[in-house]
Amino acid sequence: MPTELTWLGHGSWHIKINGNDVLLDPFISDNPAATANAEELPADVILVSHGHFDHVADVADIARRTAAQVVANFEIGQWFTNQHALDNVLGMNLGGGVQLECGHVKMTLAHHSSSLPDGTYGGNPGGFVLSAPEGNIYFACDTALFSEMRQIGDAGLALAVLPIGDLFTMGPDDAVAAVKLLRPKKVAPAHYNTWPPIEQDAAAWAGKVRSETDAEPLTPAVGQTIRL
């Protein structure tokens, strides 16, 4: 089975990989752009990049229903254990990696903020590199552009997923610059068009990617699946 990635809207993804269902930053129930039902999503692993409500909102409910392992930084992991009584939680930190049944997962640097919905300190924000049979997949998650993306790209990327919404993350132009540093074979946008302040023209962005880089841009609609 090829690795499949379905954009759930905003920064949320459903990844089917190595026979496992992986969710990234599930924000479904209160997401005005979402088409999925959080009560029906399967999950073996839930990756959490940082503590903001639009990335953790459905994590606890889905984890309790599915018994999925929650993978997050140490502080967010402790918060889910203490505040939501989750016991299948793996805390890690920037630069660390772990071999899971779904594949190897590494937490990468991100430049953002990270406080949890109740104001608790959420540790350092991060991104993830997930090893798939087709190659590495990089989820930048919520971040600004940073020069170390070149080192992330040195590992070789089959796909990079980058925010393009601007205001809270990179905008379209910086996301094109990120593609130049990362040098992925394919790239997809995220974290845009959820609300008016982060509305963007993904087709125009894809045109810049095609004209200025060697990457193939993919712009799935919410609910659409990418197959590697």
Pick out its properties.
about 230 residues; alpha/beta; Metallo-beta-lactamase, Chain A; 7-stranded mixed sheet; 6 helices; about 30% strand
Task: Provide a descriptive summary of the structure in words.
The chain is α/β, with parallel strands linked by helices and 228 residues long. The protein has one domain (4-220): Ribonuclease Z/Hydroxyacylglutathione hydrolase-like (Metallo-beta-lactamase, Chain A, 4-Layer Sandwich), CATH 3.60.15.10. The chain contains six helices and 14 strands. The chain has helices at 53-56, 59-66, 74-84, 149-153, 172-182, 202-212; strands spanning 4-9, 12-17, 20-24, 45-47, 69-73, 89-92, 97-100, 103-109, 126-132, 135-139, 157-163, 186-190, 216-217, 225-227. The protein has a seven-stranded mixed beta sheet with strand order 6-5-4-3-2-1-14, covered by helices on one side. Helix 5 runs parallel beside helix 6 (202-212). The protein is globular and about 50 Å long. The chain starts with a strand and ends with a strand.
